[in-house]
Amino acid sequence: LAGGIILGVALWLRHDSQTTNILYLQLGDKQAPNTFYVGIYILIAVGAVMMFVGFLGCYGAIQESQCLLGTFFTCLVILFACEVAAGIWGFVNKDQIAKDVKQFYDQAFQQALMAESETNNGKAVVKTFHETLDCCGPDNAIGTFTPLWRDDLCPKKDSLLKNIVEFSNCHKKIDELFSGKLYLIGIAAIVVAVIMIFEMILSMVLCCGIRNSSVY
User: Fold this and answer.
1) Which residue spans traverse the membrane (predicted)?
2) What percent of the chain has pLDDT over 70?
3) Which of 57, 67, 87, 181 is 20 to 30 A removed from 166 (C-alpha atoms)?
4) Please, what sign has the CA dihedral across residues 88, 193, 190, 44?
């Protein structure tokens, strides 16, 4: 059940409309940075393997098989080690993920402002960011006062005042998006780690109980 829940959360994060809209973008020959998906794929793998290993442990307990329970324990140790490694990687890269996406947005924004040719897709990339995150420009002050601003880059509002008040800058929105998703990944990883610790303890207790009872 825990494996199924983790797998469900990971798949939901993987197919979330906001992240997929942004991370599938392509600026010319450059793909949007999708390092964020590494953590998601690890969660998907852990959830799927946990479901399989869970069946293995359950069957081993029913059959009172020390071999199956020992295999179950070994698999849990390997999964736990992989999860700790993934957690360390995520903690180290949590700021870099948002930073890479913001740099990608800034490059598209500059191209959208400077390029006159319709063959350049910077404008389309920027509009996707703006519509997905409901934001406007890298900075509100720049977006309001620079004469280079093109009106069609941001979603339309009824008035300039609403444009200023209702839209946040996109850097802030990108930070909020990925910090929220990484927070969910962190919670899921902690829950899985706690469950694994209890599973390892209980599997060894059961294995030792079967070994002792077989003597009599």
Assistant:
1) 36-62, 68-92, 182-206
2) 83
3) 181
4) positive
CA distances from 68 to 161, 192, 207 (A): 67, 21, 9
* Amino acid type, 177: L
- Whole-Å CA distances, 172 to 101, 128, 130, 169, 177: 12, 16, 12, 6, 9
**Number of domains within the chain:** 1
Give CA–CA dist 132/155, Å, rounded.
Answer: 10
Q: What share of the chain is helix, strand, coil (3-state, %, to 5)?
A: 80, 5, 20
- pLDDT reading at 213 higher than 80: no
CATH number at 143 reads: 1.10.1450.10
Which tens digits make up the pLDDT trace of 124-179? 888 888 888 888 777 654 544 444 454 667 766 554 444 444 556 888 888 888 88
